[in-house]
Design goal:
globular, 11-stranded mixed β-sheet, alpha/beta, Amidase signature (AS) enzymes, Amidase_dom, Amidase, 16 helices, 38% helix
């Protein structure tokens, strides 16, 4: 059968297969054809798994092709480099729990997507594989760290792709590529079997997708992960059903367009939020401009100190895997510097930052006693150009010179860390809050800039209320503001 593969989302393809209108093999061949045609230009897929087959014909997504992320989503017998040349020879010895569970939905994993080294950046430009490009305009980044996943879905290679989000890594690339992206509540999705938490629970795995219903249906499929250090508030309904059910009550909506760290927010990103809240008002919801009751700079610092410490820990784990010390030339200069900074973070500093996570979570719980949802821009700026955020030649020369713990400690005393926080989060200051509090947060594709690039609108809800987010997203998906990702020139 000849059919328009790219016209269907994951559930749509599964229905065709279930009704025997098309064979799983035909769908797989269509996906492979899309990858082979588009990947040379976009560089979204860095490892192909075309020989794989689905294992569960009864699953909701039987026969649907999917790509997984090249970090924390191991498939047994396949590479797991995390975008690092130091790990180029590492082969996974078992499936991650996330991969095991999505396989039980009937999907067929046909490859892995590109990530920045150790998934550390909001762009996807690793030295090992080269940059992934945005399907809307290949001069621009698709964001990160799930940039390869976003580019693959936004270009029609696959309808859904595995992703994870430790500071915005589902929401940022979804926003930049005109997709729907949900970061679920902490503890809602699988994390094991080798770890019980990623980034102290800040990072969770899920998918990004073209449609709301695919994300909702996949969230319905996860089962309790006995390895997970956290358990999300139970939900006994169907997220897929929620995505097709309008919000029954008048919501009280808080929103802001101001950066929580006091830096600039691009006019286009502000406009995306302003248009969305005006639409919500016309739908009968009460809208009020009000910022979250948390200290944005403390959130940023809490996140960045975790960031430093986790990079240092990742480099130690890399040494265990390699059986030797990691040297400067094993990793990218920025990764090396972050690892050195992580070694200067003492136990007291780290515990203080973790304590603020709980304080912020409590403050947000109280906030949601009054407001059902909280809306911000997903990012403070539209996508950067490829290479725009590279280290400068001077920075690349300085980092090896600051290659000792003593000099790194001196560097911290100069205010370098505060400057680094601002540089790192100026473009993406809104997403980290939900990672630290554990709340669910989604990005909606509600605006195209005058340059024709998508920017997103972030919506947060109380912990455990993914159902409310899906209800709202399902309604807004039918609005004229919702971007049609199929209109990008590389779809």
């Amino acid at each position: 059968m000849v059919f328009a593969y790219k016209d269907y989302d994951g559930l749509g393809l599964a229905e065709l297969i279930r009704n025997k209108e098309v064979k799983p093999e035909e769908v797989k061949e269509m996906a492979i054809r899309e990858i082979e045609e588009k990947n040379p230009k976009l560089n979204a897929v860095i490892h192909k798994m075309y020989d794989e087959s689905p294992i569960d014909s009864s699953g909701m997504f039987f026969g649907v092709p999917i790509l997984t992320k090249n970090i924390s989503q191991e498939s047994k017998g396949h590479p797991m480099t995390a975008g690092s040349k130091a790990l180029v020879d590492v082969i996974a010895d078992e499936d991650s729990e996330f991969v095991r569970q999505i396989k039980n939905t009937g999907v067929i994993i046909i490859g892995q997507t590109n990530v920045p080294e150790l998934a550390l950046m909001g762009i996807t430009e690793p030295e090992l594989y080269g940059p992934t490009r945005n399907p809307w305009n290949t001069d621009y980044t698709p964001g990160g760290s799930s940039g390869g996943a976003a580019a693959a879905v936004a270009s029609g290679m696959v309808p859904v792709a595995g992703a994870n989000d430790g500071g915005g890594s589902i929401r940022i690339p979804s926003a930049y590529c005109g997709l729907f992206g949900l970061k679920p509540t902490r503890g809602r999705t699988p994390v094991g079997p080798k770890v019980g938490r990623n980034w102290q629970g800040a990072s969770v795995d899920h998918i990004l997708s073209r449609t709301v219903r695919d994300s909702a249906a996949m969230l319905d499929q996860y089962r309790l992960d006995r390895y997970n250090a956290f358990v999300a508030p139970p939900f006994h309904g169907s997220y897929l059903e929620a995505a097709g059910t309008p919000v029954a009550k008048r919501l009280k909506v808080a929103y802001t367009v101001n950066s929580p760290i006091g830096l600039t927010v691009d006019r286009e990103c502000r406009e995306a939020v302003e248009k969305t809240v005006k639409l919500l008002e016309t739908m009968g919801h009460h809208v009020e401009e009000k910022a979250a009751p948390v200290d944005g700079k403390k959130i940023a610092n809490s996140y960045i100190y975790l960031y430093f410490a986790e990079v240092a820990s990742a480099l130690r784990e890399m040494e265990r895997i390699l059986g030797r010390n990691v040297a400067f030339n094993d990793v990218e200069p920025a990764t090396w510097m972050l690892g050195l900074l992580g070694r200067t973070v003492n136990a007291e500093e780290l515990l203080i930052t973790l304590k603020y996570w709980d304080e912020a979570a409590i403050a947000m719980e109280k906030f949601h006693d009054e407001y059902d949802i909280y809306i911000t821009p997903t990012t403070a700026h539209p996508p950067a150009k490829i290479g725009e955020l590279d280290l400068t030649p001077m920075e690349k020369r300085i980092i090896p010179l600051v290659g000792s713990l003593r000099l790194t400690k001196l560097l911290r005393k100069t205010g370098f860390v505060d400057k680094l926080v601002n540089q790192s989060l100026e473009r993406t200051p809104f997403t980290q809050l939900a990672n630290l509090t554990g709340q669910p947060a989604m990005t909606l594709p509600m605006h195209l800039t005058k340059e024709g690039l998508p920017v997103g609108v972030q919506v947060m809800a109380r912990r455990g209320r993914e159902d409310l987010l899906f209800q709202l997203a399902g309604e807004l998906e039918q609005s004229d503001l919702w971007i049609d990702v199929k209109k990008n020139p590389n779809y």
